[in-house]
């Protein structure tokens, strides 16, 4: 069977080639009955417009740049893998591609971005791994490059805290409310009867880490009527080994906690290892709901990655079209994947 073309679709639908083009690219210019007839032929024949022709017409690459973050311990990195998969799938559905590149740090990322822009290989960029003192957003904005980020552009260290909805007002972003996630996790284990809930998170200064800690602290203040004890607040680098060491110290202290909320699944796996080692009845909740958490039956905060990818894509394509996104800054609510009491 011959491959369908613009000419064959127009002939089968009984319309002009321009009408077919309008139906695919400017459907508001076509009468509803005609539009339905053209789209029916397009679907039935499997016609796909020429990407090269579209690029020539629009002067766009129809591609979006995305930096692959440096490899981690193999657990936390699966979150961005899932986000990238969702973003790529959503972009394909609207005729765009995701161009991947690697960079060891932010400085190298800007160099890669300049190369891609110079070759006109992409129309805009999706940033990830946002952090305090992150200069990438200002760098891209200063060059007029369409961009958005999965993650808020956190304020600089020492800057006044801003409400989540106002943070990063200098650019577009979509993020998941980490504080809401850890607050839900803390209330979950409290409802199970735990009255001493500790938190194991990352060192102070991490934007997302501080946000996740705040949710735990907020829940503790509300449930107990007092601020959480510093003895219940462990700050370590991410990973199962640091998580294990932190929870061993918590369990060896007087009046140890009976539940732990963690900033990541990696830390939570270390916490569970420590509980087994000490033969302690410790309930653990992780964050990110990675495949590892599901495999071992760990209760974990789940990020709505499909919704995040759809939001980021909507924002970026609007910017590429020279328009203001309908929702330039979006904070999504996570959920709790409960697999057994307390995790």
Automatic annotation (TrEMBL):
Stretches assigned to the HTH lacI-type domain:
4-58
Per its UniProt record, what Gene3D superfamilies does this chain match? 3.40.50.2300, lambda repressor-like DNA-binding domains
Q: Which SMART domains match?
A: HTH_LACI (SM00354)
**PROSITE patterns per the UniProt record, alphabetical:** HTH_LACI_2
Asked if the keyword Transcription belongs to this entry, the reply reads yes
GO MF terms, alphabetically ordered: DNA-binding transcription factor activity; transcription cis-regulatory region binding
What's this protein's name? LacI family transcriptional regulator
């Amino acid at each position: 069977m011959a491959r369908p073309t613009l000419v064959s679709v127009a002939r089968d639908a009984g319309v002009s080639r321009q009408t077919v083009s309008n139906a695919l690219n400017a459907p508001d210019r076509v009468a509803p009955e005609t539009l339905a007839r053209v789209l029916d032929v397009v679907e039935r024949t499997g016609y796909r417009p020429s990407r090269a022709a579209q690029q020539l017409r629009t002067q766009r690459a129809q591609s979006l740049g995305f930096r692959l973050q440096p490899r981690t311990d193999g657990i936390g990195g699966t979150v961005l893998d899932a986000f990238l998969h969702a973003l790529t799938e959503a972009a394909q559905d609207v005729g765009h591609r995701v161009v991947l590149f690697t960079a060891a740090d932010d400085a190298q990322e800007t160099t890669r971005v300049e190369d891609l822009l110079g070759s006109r290989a992409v129309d805009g960029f999706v940033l990830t791994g946002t952090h305090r003192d992150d200069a990438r957003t200002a760098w891209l904005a200063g060059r007029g490059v369409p961009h958005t980020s999965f993650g808020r552009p956190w304020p600089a260290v020492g800057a006044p805290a801003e409400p989540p909805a106002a943070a990063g007002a200098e650019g577009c972003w979509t993020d998941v409310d980490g504080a809401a996630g850890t607050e839900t996790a803390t209330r979950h284990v409290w409802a199970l009867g735990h009255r001493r809930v500790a938190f194991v998170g990352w060192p102070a200064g991490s934007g997302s880490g501080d946000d996740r800690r705040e949710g735990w602290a907020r829940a503790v203040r509300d449930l107990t009527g007092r601020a959480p004890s510093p003895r219940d607040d462990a700050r370590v680098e991410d990973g199962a080994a640091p998580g294990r060491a932190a929870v061993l110290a918590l369990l060896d202290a007087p009046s140890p906690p009976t539940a732990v909320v963690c900033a990541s699944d990696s830390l939570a796996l270390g916490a569970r290892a420590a509980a087994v080692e000490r033969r302690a009845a410790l309930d653990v909740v992780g964050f990110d709901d990675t495949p590892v958490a599901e495999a071992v039956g760990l209760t974990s905060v789940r990020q709505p990655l499909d919704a995040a990818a759809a939001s980021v894509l909507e924002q970026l394509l609007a910017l590429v079209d020279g328009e203001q996104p309908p929702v330039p800054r979006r904070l999504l609510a996570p959920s709790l994947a409960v697999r057994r009491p307390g995790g």
